[in-house]
Design a protein that fits this description.
Elements (H helix, E strand, L loop, with lengths): L1 H16 L9 H5 L1 E3 L5 E3 H7 L5 E6 L4 H16 L4 E6 L4 H10 L5 E4 L7 H6 L6 E5 L5 E6 L5 H8 L1
Parallel strand pairs: 3-4, 4-5
Antiparallel strand pairs: 1-2, 3-6, 6-7
Subcellular location: Cell envelope
Protein name: TlpA family protein disulfide reductase
Keywords: Cytochrome c-type biogenesis, Disulfide bond, Redox-active center
């Protein structure tokens, strides 16, 4: 019985350690469309191109999400501590009006985009959104170096932006 338990533990450990997080967005995710504050459609590729050569912190959030709002002070601390980074906010709000209202209400500063299809789109499928807030870091070489953290002060996120 001990041998079987050891084998199962080894297999589970091996499988969980080998799960690779992507370092590049899929073409489908890059082609997905978002809406700007001026209600123009843009692709994820164009959003990333706008910030090319810079470290980007992506915050996937919604104004109805209590955990997102609770994390906003941490995001603002991050912005104060690392003002040279690019901050891109991708909203899963239920409407354009609630999204714009949330930006103003919570004084969210950065580059803002709305996902009109929320969790039902190529971008959401690629990042496998299971919880928000969700933070990602894209380095200066346009590689995803943090794929999935849910706290703006997560050690993995902080380490990535310091490098």
């Amino acid at each position: 019985m001990k041998k079987l338990s050891l084998v199962i533990l080894t297999v589970v450990t091996f499988l969980s350690c080998n799960k690779q997080e992507p370092v590049q967005f899929s073409q489908e995710a890059l082609n997905d469309t978002f809406v700007t504050l001026t209600e123009q459609e843009v692709t994820l590729q164009s959003i990333l191109n706008k910030h090319k050569g810079k470290t980007i912190v992506i915050d996937i959030w919604a104004s109805w999400c209590s955990d997102c709002i609770k994390n906003m002070p941490k995001v603002k601390n991050l912005q104060a501590q690392f003002p040279d980074l690019e901050y891109v906010f991708l909203s899963l709000d239920r409407s354009l009006d609630s999204w714009k209202h949330g930006i103003n209400k919570y004084q969210v500063t950065g580059d803002h985009y709305y996902l009109p299809n929320a969790k039902d789109c190529a971008f959401a499928d690629f990042v496998n959104i299971s919880w928000i807030p969700r933070y990602m870091v894209i380095n200066k070489a346009s590689e995803i170096v943090v794929f999935n953290v849910i706290e703006a002060d997560d050690e993995k996120l902080l380490e990535a932006i310091k490098n």
